[in-house]
Design a protein that fits this description.
By secondary structure, the chain is of the alpha/beta class. The chain has a single domain, classed as Alkaline Phosphatase, subunit A (3-Layer(aba) Sandwich), CATH 3.40.720.10. The strands form 4 sheets. It has a 10-stranded mixed β-sheet, with helices on both faces. The protein has a 4-stranded antiparallel β-sheet with strand order 14-15-16-17, covered by helices on one side. Helix 5 runs parallel beside helix 7 and helix 6 packs across helix 7.
């Protein structure tokens, strides 16, 4: 592992939870792509069938205020693997994101379209701690061999290669760019990724393992398995709230995969020593893009590509049989940067990289929340998204959230405890709170060396 920049950080393990010399807990982290906050039945969706994820929530903790560190894919993935805010990594847009707006007074910020090789990933940390590590699915953090997953701590790698948006004509790189599986239209990609995940688990069931399973679904293009469609077509005609039946079928295939993994753990007596996390990399897509609108995030405002709640609030389920209270619904908020230090604490790793932004949420998971001052969490998206998002930043502290428009300097303040839709701007009425959060956001940007949008020399203001 890359050893530079390691710091000794004290860890306070909750009684009976986490690392022991005899039994290290296994970790399975399952990441959906563009899955919206209310796309699962256990989050109130009346149309999509997700019995396995509902069962995971029933036996674990369902979070109602979990956040992705960015409203688009690559930065959030980097935050999960590194424990750092995308702004600190200067990886602030999705790989290949380059949209501009000639009519805007700003140009997008400079950024790095990759996770640097020098960054220490949670896979490297766990590998050094004796874990077998696997990355299956969507990488989306750069394609050079030095920064591919097989050189970032993963011993078993099945990375989606060519035609990643085609669920029946794709390729998968097997541990290197020299070994490639090419599908010829026979194996549905979501199912294939589950196959690989179970293959890894079967080969490593007698030793501690970390599986990072990153599904590409339900990202557009919306291509479901045909055999799942008919029941959703029937529901479509009967539902008061119209939905995309093709998208619902894609979500169900993810649920199938989760069910197969849970069955494997049960059959091999691994459930009680395995922590399972399921979440999404950003909010759902609530507009037409490469086809009809996939989903709705209402009552949340906006969708993927925006720093409003619809773009960053995501489903998150955490389960550890016999360790975490089953069936609990938590309103505590946290960010995807927090997974890294949480895994370190659970597995007994006491040295990890400097400048980690995340904070272990193990006290939240165990229900032993220690009262403290309200913790601020941050977002920085200095780009124009494909989903019509504009350059903006945000900070949440307690129930209040501030959004800054980087083009105009406009500030918006919302009280999320009373206004989950972010429809009432309180910045004019609560000036001291607005100033407090704006200073937090500005100081944080300096602290992490956030790259800001640049002036557009071709901009001509309207007269």
């Amino acid at each position: 592992m890359k050893k530079q920049g390691l710091a000794l950080v004290p860890l306070l393990l909750s009684a009976g939870i986490g690392y022991s010399q005899n039994t290290k807990p296994n970790i399975i982290f399952i990441l959906a792509d563009d899955l919206g906050w209310k796309d699962l039945a256990c989050y109130g969706n009346k149309n999509t069938e997700t019995p396995n994820l509902d069962s995971l929530a029933k036996h674990g903790i369902r979070f109602t205020q979990a956040y992705a560190a960015c409203p688009v894919s690559s930065p959030t993935r980097a935050s999960i693997l590194s424990g750092k805010y995308p702004a600190r990594l200067q990886l602030t847009n999705f790989i290949a994101g380059n949209r501009t707006d000639p009519s805007s007074p700003v140009l997008p910020a400079n950024w790095k379209p990759y996770l640097e090789a020098r960054e220490i990933t949670i896979a490297e940390m766990l590998k050094d701690a004796g874990y077998s590590t696997a990355m299956v699915g969507k990488w989306h953090l750069g394609n050079h061999d030095t920064i591919a997953p097989w050189n970032q701590g993963f011993g078993y790698t099945r990375m989606i290669g060519k035609n990643g948006l085609d669920y029946y004509n794709y390729s998968v790189y097997i541990d290197s760019y020299q070994n490639e599986f090419v599908d010829n239209g026979k194996e549905y990609l979501t199912d294939k990724l589950t196959d690989y995940g179970i293959e890894f688990l079967a080969a490593n069931k007698t030793k501690p393992f970390f599986l990072y399973l990153a599904y590409s679904a339900p990202h557009v293009v919306i291509v479901p398995r045909p055999d799942k469609l008919m029941k959703y077509f029937r529901k479509y005609g009967q539902s008061e709230e119209k939905f995309n039946p093709y998208y619902a079928a894609m979500v169900e295939s993810i649920d199938d995969g989760v069910g197969r993994i849970m069955n494997f753990l049960k059959e091999n007596n691994l459930l009680e020593n395995t922590i399972i996390i399921f979440t999404s990399d950003n909010g759902g897509l609530g507009m037409d893009e490469l086809g009809p609108t996939p989903t709705s995030n209402l009552p949340l405002r906006k969708w993927k590509g925006h720093v409003y709640e619809g773009g960053i609030r995501v489903p998150a389920i955490v389960s550890w049989r016999g360790k975490f209270e089953p069936g609990r619904i938590s309103e505590e908020y946290f960010s995807s940067v927090d997974y890294f230090p949480t895994f370190c604490e659970i597995t007994g790793i006491k040295r990890f990289p400097e400048n980690i932004d995340g904070k272990s949420i193990l006290p939240i998971l165990t229900g032993n929340v220690v009262p403290e001052a309200e913790r601020p969490i941050f977002w920085h998206y200095p780009h124009f998204s494909n989903q019509l998002g504009r350059p903006a930043g945000a900070v949440r502290k307690g129930n209040f959230k501030l959004v800054e428009n980087y083009e105009t300097g406009e500030l918006q303040l919302f009280d999320l405890s009373k206004d989950i839709s972010e429809s009432i701007n309180l910045s004019g009425d609560l000036k001291m709170k607005t100033e407090e959060l704006y200073k937090l956001l500005m100081d944080w940007r300096v602290r992490v060396n956030a790259q800001m949008p640049e002036k557009n020399p071709g901009y001509k203001p309207a007269r």
